[in-house]
Design brief:
This protein is mainly α and 71 residues long. The protein contains 4 helices and no strands.
Length: 71
């Protein structure tokens, strides 16, 4: 997931909405496959406004929390 988050951050920094859309779509699918509901909701929020810094910060926080949660 860390490489995907790095690509997402780079796309956000570049304001590349095409790359943002693609990365967010992949993350959404991954969240669904593994049942990461909180992270999926954060992906939805970031998708709703791809250039909203707060939404992206929340997504990265949700990812950190998800990765820190034991299985």
């Amino acid at each position: 997931i860390e490489p995907a988050l790095a690509r997402l951050r780079a796309a956000f920094d570049a304001r590349d909405t095409g790359a943002l859309h693609a990365e967010l779509h992949r993350l959404k699918a991954s969240c669904g496959f593994v049942g990461a509901a909180r992270m999926g909701a954060a992906v939805d929020a970031a998708s709703a406004d791809m250039l909203d810094a707060r939404a992206h910060d929340a997504l990265h926080a949700a990812a950190r929390d998800t990765l820190a949660t034991p299985y």
